[in-house]
Amino acid sequence: MQQKNDLKRGIIRWGARQLIFWLLLMLILMLIYGNFQWTAGWVFLIIVAGGQILNALILLPNHGDLLAERSKIGEGTSKRDIFLAFMMAYNSWFIGSFCAVDARNGWSPQIPLWLWVAAILLILAGSGFTQWAMYSNRFFSGVVRIQSDRGHQVINKGPYRIVRHPGYLGVVIFILMTPLVLKSIWGLLLALIFIALVFVRTSWEDETLREDLPGYIEYAKEVRYKLIPKIW
Q1: CB 69 within 8 A of CB 10
Q2: Cα–Cα distance between 225 and 232 in angstroms, integer?
Q3: Measured in Å, how far apart are the chain's first and last C-alpha atoms?
Q4: pTM score > 0.85 for this model?
Q5: Which CATH number is 2-222's, of 3.90.25.10, 1.20.120.1630, 2.40.50.100, 3.30.230.10?
Q6: Digit-coded pLDDT (tens) for 38-88
Q7: I need a labelling partner for 124 at 20 to 30 A (CA). Which of 43, 155, 174, 176 fits?
Q8: Is 151 strand, coil or helix?
Q9: Do residues 44 and 88 lie in contact, with contact meaning Cβ atoms separated by under 8 Å?
Q10: Residue 78 in 3-state DSSP?
Q11: Cα Rg for the chain, rounded, in angstroms?
Q12: Domain ranges of the chain
């Protein structure tokens, strides 16, 4: 009974955090922009909300424990990863803030409609790829830790047959497309900084898994690339 109650509290905590995240993102974008009539901003907000809702619909039926895991900082998480996890989780706040300033002041040249639509499709693809990785891996925690309390083991199905860290690949696509969806060319410079942090975290997590997760070294021999197929 206690375990069931803890699971329920964890899921509620995850849902509350997602709602607060979205509401604060909405206020950040619209208040910095100067009003609530920023079309590109609302398109981005709808994409984020859609991802949150899809995440819940996919995971709640069979992987509610993963939502509970992602609602907290688990035991064994290093301070270094807490920083990296924060920067990755809240990159939309930082990038969105810059893009809102850009849109308000008109710094960037106008983005062609075809490029904006392509960016929307690609950001949806990136989000979808991360969702696929999350559904395939019930140990897809928000922090880097060996989840001995949850029976952590190597996952080699779904997108994990393509690269060892498919969730991060989806995140890279999402971050790169965020400024374009918000119609900010200059925002790409800030996005590149956050993408560099994703590469740093990927490398560090891969090293941690090699050292501490049984079977991961053998898996790494089968799936050679960490993040980008045929490259790295």
Answers
A1: yes
A2: 5
A3: 45
A4: yes
A5: 1.20.120.1630
A6: 999 999 999 999 999 998 888 888 777 777 777 777 666 667 778 888 888
A7: 155
A8: coil
A9: no
A10: coil
A11: 18
A12: 2-222
